[in-house]
Amino acid sequence: MTVTTPLVNGTSYCLIKAYSQDSYKQAIEFYSKFLALDDCSTDNTTQTTTLSNGSISLKIKLEEDKTLQSKTESQIQFLKSIKDTKDWRSHVAESLVFNTSNIMLNKDTLTTLNAPTQSFPSDLFPMQLYTIDPLGNIIGVTSTKNAVSTMPTEPPSTKKAKFSTSTLPSKVHSFTDLSYRMQTTNNYPSLPGKQIIDPTKPKKAIAVMTSGGDAQGMNSNVRAIVRSAIFKGCRAFVVMEGYEGLVRGGPEYIKECSWEDVRGWSTEGGTNIGTARCLEFRQRDGRLLGAQHLIEAGVDALIVCGGDGSLTGADLFRSEWPSLIKELLENGRISKDQFQKYQHLNICGTVGSIDNDMSTTDATIGAYSALDRICKAIDYVEATANSHSRAFVVEVMGRNCGWLALLAGIATSADYIFIPEKPATSSEWQDQMCDIVAKHRSKGKRTTIVIVAEGAISADLTPISPADVHKVLVDRLGLDTRITTLGHVQRGGTAVAYDRMLATLQGVEAVNAVLESTADTPSPLIAINENKIVRKPLVESVRLTKSVAEAIQAKDFKKAMDLRDTEFVEHLKNFMAINSADHNEPKLPNDKRLKIAIVNVGAPAGGINSAVYSMATYCMSQGHKPYAINNGWSGLARHESVRSLEWKDMIGWQSRGGSEIGTNRVTPEQADIGMIAYYFQKYQFDGLVIVGGFEAFESLHQLERARESYPAFRIPMVLIPATLSNNVPGTEYSLGSDTALNALMEYCDVVKQSASSTRGRAFVVDVQGGNSGYLATCAALAVGAQASYVPEEGIPLEQLQQDIETLAESFESAKGRGRFGKLILKSTNASKALSATDLAKVMTSEANGRFDAKPAYPGHVQQGGLPSPIDRTRATRFAIRAVDFIEEQQETIAAARAADDDFKLDDKVVSATATVLGVRRSHIVFNPIRQLYDFETDVEARMPKVIHWQATREIADHLVGRKRVD
Ligand SMILES: Nc1ncnc2c1ncn2[C@@H]1O[C@H](COP(=O)(O)OP(=O)(O)OP(=O)(O)O)[C@@H](O)[C@H]1O
Ligand SMILES: O=P(O)(O)OC[C@H]1O[C@](O)(CO)[C@@H](O)[C@@H]1O
Ligand SMILES: [Mg+2]
């Protein structure tokens, strides 16, 4: 493809952000070549400035008639060559900005400007394009799929991380680019909290329905769709009882909905608009009625939240639409005007199903909540199983998909699992299961947990029932065995934080998708990929999903597995490695077996024990010797104990809260780094895994800097971030932050209920998290808090005044109706002057009788009890990746280890062998501690310089109608 459209009619700039002189030079080279700017020289066409946020910018001035001729093929070759030859990600700049200051932008121009990215394979070229208007506002953002993974994110700066809506976001990732899109849709100017109404256009009517099995989070999805639609100047409708409501029609089933109608829904389980499995809709006559009723209600677009079946139905409905309306016209059931007006059915899917069985999305709304119910149930069952030394066969849901069984198997360290994707012959599974269970028993395990997915089958497709498994455990092993079928408990209760956030953000995106689609746009499905909300073609997703079931039916299990995402495959491999640890012959030969130590540093966080358990069991299955450094660095300096981790000592650790090996905040330098080196030398460690938060980050930095003096530290070292504050540089996600978020959210739900029961009552909840507003921000989104105050923003008095007014108005309009309890979340460090108690007093006083506010302190409850399944399963994944990393880096560091004390370490070796494991867009990446510490960390504030949850705040604000004072 060749793009020959002029970049702009006038002078234009290409603005490149870079983070150091080195990366800046690289960036010039890279982007000059990318833009085919052969004549671009740094002397006469470029000019550099240092932006107020500290990044170095480059402006390449283009000639008036310069055209952007993307020679796609040659550029792809160029990108390939860069990719093959060097780690370009760590050098090139992160974003490319077209500053179109001289032109009025319209949608076509935007498309044109963004066109080049679309022709590039996204894995080759991570890039974001920001289009900015003459005032410097971002009015268009396009990011390629895998944009930004291991790149440095900020320039060196001593400035504290601050949010600002007036500066460019230095990255747009995870859930975050949504708010920018919200501001840009239809090019309406918008402010969070204000409605966007274009008086020249008729209001669009958007309907939402839930269908198939209910799933936790559906209510959040409906709430977000209704409010987002209203926010964008549309009418919002709900279709009651799934497709049943379409077939029946009328205002009782297709209802217009107001902003207030969905108040408080985020905190409620099930689906408040009802769902059904509707046989009539499977018939054409049923769909014909559905079409007629939608047209009668004046609905332009339908958003369906449901599973694979519901979305198959939606797709069929869309494809039949022209023939349905034709028939309706011919039979006189709709008028000619209606026929003309409703030519196209604008349809969009959001995937709500606990099964997590939809292809093209990593998670479906409800799946993690169901997993939470399963893990809690198994944790409970363990207690009684242990008392009687019994075996339990637990049946979990999932008709064609083993995701729930697999993830529950990892999170509860079950002995064996049955999933439809990986069946064995009857004799194979019987032998294998009995072998593993017998070995676990012989090593002292008093409980046996076997998880059977509802759709489990053997290789000849015969269903495997819990009774079949029960029989084998009794007959062959003589175990006292019980069956527990969890059933609909799995769909019960309220949604976990992840599902509330996912459902809310997908709802927002679904409305965007509907508003942006034209008659030619294929119906989208809103998915989450790589931690980012994306649109996928609905038809293709449905087709792929069906093909998994077909592959299983055709006994092509390899294909079925290939069609599952790579994370599923990795989880399965991990489960098999850790559940058969210390039993089978280790994988690696003797000379490759290592001594690997693990240490916990900092405050306890959910998932720390799971990381230790998984690291140790995986080490055993590989043939390594795992050691625990007890009670952190101070423990080692005092030589309290270094112990070799044994399988039988760790039974049950995977599911336990706290830190079994002990933790504290002392860093190596505080403890006695010389003594620590001595013990490293004594035990001859070949690798180190540190699990913890900012003190752990400091620890890794100190050990890495001390390598020149202490050869014992010349080993591969990995930090697995674990802290509820989620403030470790280099990752978007730290272990423990999900557990904490859920603990805080549950606390808030309870407090909100109390507030709702008392007229005119708000609670100010004090939130932990150090200088990081992550917890407060995400909890605010999950519980629908009226406002959140975070350290990054402080508590500006004008904003506080505005929030009090908004609250007062809201209470006044409530007139005592239900669900009107209000929450305000305040990070402890948002203000040193105002505690939650003070803030509550100020609010009460300023409200002048219109409402009152009380403080609430969840305190250390936020560290959570049992770790959440997300933290447990991620801990396993991280720990195994860390061990793999230590194996891989042995060679890199071999020369340094062999050298004497004065050896000068090569920078490459330093970078490669002391790293922080992080999640960036759900890619697991390893970032050198030196890079992170020197360039991406505000050490004083104990924060990364770039905050990745900024846009989540804006969405949270506008979904509750909070007005921002800029
Ligand atoms: N092929 C189809 N044609 C028309 N409608 C369909 C079709 N498949 C499903 N539907 C409609 O969608 C409804 C829900 O489908 P299904 O029972 O398969 O649940 P689901 O959406 O897959 O959710 P879950 O599996 O999570 O329960 C069906 O009752 C039916 O009304
Ligand atoms: O609630 P119902 O209609 O009995 O359906 C149960 C099915 O729904 C699901 O919960 C979701 O598809 C499946 O896991 C289960 O097989
Ligand atoms: Mg289904």
Automatic annotation (TrEMBL):
- Catalytic residues in the record: 355 (proton acceptor)
Annotated positions binding beta-D-fructose 2,6-bisphosphate: 665, 723-727, 761, 768-770, 854, 860-863, 942
**EC number(s) for this protein?**
2.7.1.11
The record's annotation in Gene3D superfamilies points to: 2,3-Dihydroxybiphenyl 1,2-Dioxygenase, domain 1, 3.40.50.450, Phosphofructokinase domain
Q: Which reaction does it catalyse?
A: beta-D-fructose 6-phosphate + ATP = beta-D-fructose 1,6-bisphosphate + ADP + H(+)
What residues does Mg(2+) bind to? 308
Per UniProt, residues of the Phosphofructokinase domain are 206-514, 595-886
The record lists substrate as bound by 353-355, 390, 397-399, 454, 482, 488-491
> Which superkingdom heads the taxonomic lineage of this protein's source?
Eukaryota
Q: Name its GO BP terms in alphabetical order.
A: canonical glycolysis; fructose 1,6-bisphosphate metabolic process; fructose 6-phosphate metabolic process; vacuolar acidification; vacuolar proton-transporting V-type ATPase complex assembly
**Which keywords annotate this record?**
Allosteric enzyme, ATP-binding, Cytoplasm, Glycolysis, Kinase, Magnesium, Metal-binding, Nucleotide-binding, Transferase
PROSITE patterns on file? PHOSPHOFRUCTOKINASE
| Activity regulation summary | Allosterically activated by ADP, AMP, or fructose 2,6-bisphosphate, and allosterically inhibited by ATP or citrate.
Q: Where is this region: Interdomain linker?
A: 581-594
Outline the segment boundaries, as ranges, of region: C-terminal regulatory PFK domain 2.
595-966
This protein's GO cellular component annotations are: 6-phosphofructokinase complex; mitochondrion
GO-annotated molecular function: 6-phosphofructokinase activity; AMP binding; ATP binding; fructose-6-phosphate binding; identical protein binding; metal ion binding; monosaccharide binding; mRNA binding
Its annotated pathway reads:
Carbohydrate degradation; glycolysis; D-glyceraldehyde 3-phosphate and glycerone phosphate from D-glucose: step 3/4
| Predominant cellular place of this UniProt entry's protein | cytoplasm
- What does it do? Catalyzes the phosphorylation of D-fructose 6-phosphate to fructose 1,6-bisphosphate by ATP, the first committing step of glycolysis.
Subunit structure, briefly?
Answer: Heterooctamer of 4 alpha and 4 beta chains.
Protein's name in the database: ATP-dependent 6-phosphofructokinase
